[in-house]
Write a structure and sequence with these properties.
One of its GO terms (biological process) is DNA-templated transcription. InterPro entries: TF_fung, XnlR_reg_dom, Zn2-C6_fun-type_DNA-bd_sf, Zn2Cys6_DnaBD. Its main location: nucleus. It is a single chain. The chain is mainly α. Strand 1 and strand 2 form a beta hairpin. The longest helix has 27 residues.
Length: 697
């Protein structure tokens, strides 16, 4: 027998129920402004605490079809596809109204421009405007994000370099008026041709300023005056920067902006804003792989993405993108003198010849940045994608000349093929970045040598490791490389760059120089990488042990010097973490020797050095996860020593720092139970103290 219907309920007309209940096929009472079913669902959601970085919707997600000529905008938490379709239809309708020359009374006039939006209209940090797709911008469109992400705070730079158009408080307008204000602002950006996936133009300019102020890597290859001038052009102008490059800059600059990042459950830093824009860069690169890789801007974006992935500790992804940009640079002919070459057999370059000295210098810097990145991701001993024999490009000019507005000087007469190019420095073409480039080339030479010897060793079966090691260390190639790494390069650093902190040495750079700091550390890291496999800790006079001991002490001492200043360690170049790691690995090796020989005092001093470098990695990891990941690798190496040592809680965090110059010499017990510290022939090259500093150049 059918159940009798209640006389108190009236059946709803077609499409009278709310959209959410119709989509889910739920019973709806069509109550306004929110039906009972949606209210019940919403109360169930807010009864549970929101996870970190998530904010519950301030009201139920419930809307109805337009009625009586009024158009209701879907809420921010509705289906993104429906919202995009609705806004696209609204844009088309507004265009038709403008063409007819009269407004639609169904749309009220926007409120005055001084009105600000309340929290109910707060948008995600991923974007400050709508994500409408425009025909003039390639690439996929972005879904609209709800207000579930926390508001970001201001950028940590002087107020003179940025503008602010963020909503501050609730004043005056009703929610519907605020929504229409938001729509008008979005439509203004759509009409201007501004890429829909980028933040507001003022926000992009702010991030670009932060990028040039704080970035330690990719900013060296981008000409700031040209980029700022191109950014001021209309978005549909042919000289406007490639959207992928702007996404990459947003990704990189986000690291130095407070409020974008959050801490994950593992304690590592997470940056949804950077991840969003990094995905956009990847999509543009994937599109270029099918349609053709013909843009230097896109190549620059790929380089910036690689640095970001490397600093985030995503080494596999960074390795693949470095390989991509390395192969792409070859058909661009960036590895030839003048960054251009054409012949009948191989054809011409994918790029036309440089049209100016500035364009030529841009190409040089892109090439050498790819070269540095290739050496950086191969620092663990993997083969390089770009061999030195293929590098014929001239060395870049000084960064000061590159960024200046006046005409550029003549091309640098020096290249990697020049005699003694790594230890000969032309003053008019030498700065800290040039020294950093040469230091990376030096480190790459050591990695190439190690790779070749490992391949050779793997093919030999009848020779003992000891005999093979002696043959290698006595070879002319090894001795020449040892002399270059441990002596010649350091001895021939120009006098104006001898202070590794770089403070006060050059009039144009009165503050700390991150490039120069790393240029001083890389030769010591290369020394450890070259000699580590040949150490004999039982012999106090062993050359390889002495070399590694001096190099590790210099790296540790440089960290102590840096801590004596007010400069933030997190602003250093990411390759500095590799230097700390190599020094720490050496200290772990001699610590194992001291544990086995029962040298308690030397072991205690060595634990101090290990913890000091661990602290450096963890402090750097607070901003860039690569520091925490390297420290985790170090802990894996320490596992067996922690089982053998009798020292109580050796991995303590209350690390005593020694005054610069005082030194700690765990090598005192190497090879014997007494005696003084093992001295290196280059101990007189100790760096000097510099006054505190805190600004980045």
């Amino acid at each position: 027998m059918p159940r009798a219907t209640s006389s108190g309920t009236n059946p709803l007309r077609r499409n009278q129920a709310c959209r959410q209940c119709r989509r889910k096929k739920l019973k709806c009472d069509a109550a306004r402004p929110h039906c009972g079913t949606c209210v019940k669902t919403w109360k169930g959601k807010i009864a549970v605490a929101a996870p970190p970085g998530y904010i519950h919707d301030p009201q139920p997600d419930c809307d109805y079809d337009p009625g009586d000529g009024a158009s209701l905008i879907p809420t921010s938490s509705a289906d993104p596809t429906d919202r995009v379709k609705f806004l696209e239809a609204q844009v088309l309708e507004l265009k038709n109204q403008l063409a007819r020359g009269h407004p639609n009374p169904a749309y009220p006039s926007p409120p005055p421009p001084h009105v600000t939006l309340g929290p109910s209209d707060t948008r995600s940090p991923f974007s400050t405007h709508s994500t409408l797709s425009t025909p003039s911008v390639p690439g996929p469109s972005t879904p609209s994000y709800s207000n579930r992400h926390l508001e970001r705070t201001e950028i940590v730079v002087p107020e003179s370099v940025y503008l602010s158009d963020r909503p501050t408080n609730i004043v005056g307008p009703t929610p519907i008026q605020a929504t229409y204000t938001n729509v008008h602002r979005r439509l203004d950006l759509v009409y201007s041709g501004w890429p829909a996936d980028l933040p507001h133009p003022a926000e992009v300019r702010r991030l670009v300023s932060v990028f040039f102020q704080a970035d330690q890597c990719g900013s060296r290859m981008i000409h700031r005056p040209s980029l700022m001038a191109a950014l001021a052009l209309p978005a549909d102008h042919k000289d406007f920067p490639h959207t992928a490059l702007l996404h990459a800059i947003c990704t990189t600059a986000s690291r130095w902006v407070s409020g974008y990042a959050e801490r994950g459950h593992d304690g590592l830093r997470r940056d949804p804003f950077a991840e969003f824009h990094a995905k956009k860069v990847k999509l543009y690169i994937a599109q270029a792989m099918t349609s053709g890789f013909h843009s230097l801007d896109l190549l620059q974006a790929c380089i910036l993405l690689s640095w970001h992935l490397y600093m985030e500790g995503h080494w596999a992804e960074a390795w693949m993108y470095v390989g991509l940009q390395s192969r792409a640079s070859i058909p661009f002919r960036l590895n030839f003198p003048g960054c251009y070459y054409e012949d009948e057999l191989s054809g011409g370059s994918f790029l036309p010849p440089p049209t100016s000295a500035l364009e030529l210098e841009k190409r040089r810097r892109i090439w050498w940045m790819i070269f540095i990145m290739d050496r950086t991701v191969s620092s663990s001993g993997w083969s390089h994608a770009l061999p030195e024999s293929d590098a014929g490009t001239e060395f870049p000019m000084r960064l000061l000349d590159f960024q200046a507005e006046h005409p550029l000087p003549p091309d640098c007469p020096q290249s990697l093929r020049s005699p003694k190019s790594l230890i000969t420095h032309i003053p008019e073409y030498t700065d800290s970045f040039t020294l950093l480039l040469k230091a990376n080339i030096l480190y790459g030479k050591v990695m190439d040598f190690n790779t070749q010897q490992n391949i050779r060793k793997s093919s030999l079966t009848n020779r003992s490791d000891l005999k093979f090691s002696r043959e290698i260390r006595n070879s002319a190639e090894f001795q020449a490389l040892d002399r270059l790494v441990a002596h010649d390069f350091i001895e021939n650093i120009p006098h104006g760059f001898r202070n590794l902190l770089g403070v006060g040495e050059i009039a144009e750079w009165p503050t700390f120089d991150v490039d120069l700091y790393l240029a001083h550390l890389l030769p010591h890291a290369a020394t450890i990488a070259l000699h580590n496999a040949f150490m004999d800790l039982s012999d106090a006079n062993d050359l390889s042990t002495r070399r590694c001991q001096n190099a590790a002490n210099q790296i540790s001492h440089a960290y102590v010097l840096l801590e004596s200043t007010s400069f933030e360690i997190r602003r250093l170049h990411p390759s500095v973490v590799v230097c700390w790691y190599l020094a720490a690995v050496f200290y772990v090796q001699i610590c194992r020797h001291f544990v086995q020989t029962g040298s308690a005092q030397a072991e205690s001093e060595t634990w101090t050095e290990i913890n000091k470098l661990r602290l450096a990695m963890l402090e750097y990891g607070a901003q860039s996860p690569i520091g925490c990941r390297q420290e985790k690798l170090l802990q894996d190496i320490l596992t067996d020593i922690l089982k053998l040592t009798t020292t109580e809680n050796p991995l303590k965090n209350n690390i005593p720092f020694f005054a610069p110059g005082e030194g700690v010499s765990p090598s005192a017990s190497l090879g014997s139970q007494g005696g003084g510290p093992v001295r290196s022939p280059h101990d007189h090259l100790s760096v000097s103290m510099s006054p505190p500093c805190g600004e980045i150049r």
